[in-house]
Amino acid sequence: MNIYKITRHPDEDPEYDSFLGFVCIARTPFEAKRIFPSKEWESYWDEEEKCWMDALGGPIRKDAWPRDLDELQVEQVGTAMPGAQRGTVLWSFLAG
């Protein structure tokens, strides 16, 4: 498992009440892009709908985090300790 830093595209101008970026543990950059920035919101990436869904199957507000996963910047910043669980470690949120 690796540690990744995921950020929005540098040209994107995020609105208030949205995530700026996060650090996560994942096997690959592909998997890391499909992790939502916050552990507090139970969510998942729906490949068919191309959007973030909440635990009840409804879409998450579209401006909270980009829907175009190709625009996300991914940087491997380390290797996780053995036994580390996949998921978000910390995040940056632009409160408004």
Strand order of the largest sheet: 5-1-2-6
Distance between the termini: 34 Å
Work out the helix count: 1
Give the beta-strand count.
Answer: 6
Nearest-integer average pLDDT: 88
Overall SS class: mainly beta
**What amount of the residues lies in strands?**
35-45%
Which parts are unreliable, with pLDDT below 50 for 5 consecutive residues or more? none
Summarize the amount of helix as a percent range: under 10%
Sequence of secondary-structure elements: EEHEEEE
Total discrete domains? 1
Query: How can the largest sheet be summarized?
Result: 4 strands, antiparallel
General shape:
globular
User: What is the rounded Rg?
Assistant: 13 Å
Give the structure's gist in a few sentences.
With 96 residues, this protein is mostly beta strands.
